[in-house]
């Protein structure tokens, strides 16, 4: 486990799933953790676990597509703890549909939350990181970035996150800021329930059978857990990854081409 003592971390979409697992792991490593999420009720539940782990935390209602909210609550974090060391851009949504039925609204929502939201949060956080010549930004992309049936909006957004990661790593490296990304595969979270829609697009009505088929064909014979992704995120957020930047690490239990 990385040593995050005296460090301040922000995790977007930190109320549940990968975000909650990451927030808790950072807290157990000694970090002070701010959860940015629209779901304040669930965020408070995760916050209670952070405090049970003996760390400090706050839960703030933030829509990552809203620049004013982001900047305001980052100021709240700095006012309370004096700095921002780590940003985990995890907030994301799915709106799966084949292109014939994909609405412009669903296209824009997915691009706005997954891609624009990551940009706005990174842009706001890096200003504080530059002042201290230190920072770690970890983006959450997806295996879907290489293409996924019925997810042209999501695949486009997550591919964009990978491009942003590489570009920002070049721009921010001279300021002591590392920028990397993880790209999860099939992870057992609330969002994976949307995979039921994807299964139906493939003509599979029985989601449990779809899941069994995935496990059978995966070299690591199971579905991923949020903690699997959190382990890689926290490595990239640690000083152990000081010489790692501009990288996309797939956490999928299988090779990705």
Automatic annotation (TrEMBL):
One of its GO terms (molecular function) is oxidoreductase activity, acting on the CH-OH group of donors, NAD or NADP as acceptor. InterPro entries: KR_dom, NAD(P)-bd_dom_sf, Sc_DH/Rdtase_CS, SDR_fam. It comes from the Bacteria. Transmembrane segments: none annotated. The keyword Ribosomal protein does not apply. PROSITE patterns: ADH_SHORT. Residues 7-185 form the Ketoreductase domain. It holds the Pfam family adh_short_C2. Signal peptide: none annotated. Keywords: NADP, Oxidoreductase. One of its GO terms (biological process) is fatty acid elongation. NCBIfam families: PRK07231.1, PRK12826.1-2. Belongs to the short-chain dehydrogenases/reductases (SDR) family. This is Beta-ketoacyl-ACP reductase. It comes from Pueribacillus theae.
């Amino acid at each position: 486990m990385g040593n995050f003592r005296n460090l301040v971390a922000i995790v977007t979409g930190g109320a549940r799933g990968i975000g909650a697992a990451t927030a808790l792991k950072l807290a157990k490593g000694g970090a002070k953790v701010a959860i940015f999420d629209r779901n304040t009720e669930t965020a408070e539940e995760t916050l209670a676990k952070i405090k049970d782990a003996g760390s400090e935390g706050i839960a703030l209602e933030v829509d990552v597509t809203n620049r004013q909210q982001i900047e305001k609550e980052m100021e709240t974090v700095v006012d309370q703890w004096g700095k921002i060391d780590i940003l985990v851009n995890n907030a994301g949504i799915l709106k799966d549909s084949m292109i014939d039925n994909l609405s412009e609204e669903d296209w824009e929502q997915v691009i706005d939350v997954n891609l624009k939201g990551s940009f706005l949060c990174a842009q706001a956080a890096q200003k504080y990181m530059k002042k201290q010549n230190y920072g770690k930004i970890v983006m959450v992309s997806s295996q879907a970035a290489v293409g996924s049936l019925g997810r042209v909006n999501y695949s486009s957004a997550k591919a964009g996150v990978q491009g942003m990661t590489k570009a920002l790593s070049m721009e921010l490296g001279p300021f002591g800021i590392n920028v990397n990304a993880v790209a999860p595969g099939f992870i057992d979270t609330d969002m994976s329930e949307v995979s039921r829609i994807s299964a139906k697009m493939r003509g599979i009505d029985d989601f449990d059978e779809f899941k069994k088929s995935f496990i059978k064909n995966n070299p690591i014979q199971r579905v991923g857990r949020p903690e699997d992704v959190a382990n890689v995120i926290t490595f990239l957020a640690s000083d152990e990854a000081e010489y790692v930047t501009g990288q996309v690490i797939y956490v999928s239990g299988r090779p990705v081409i």
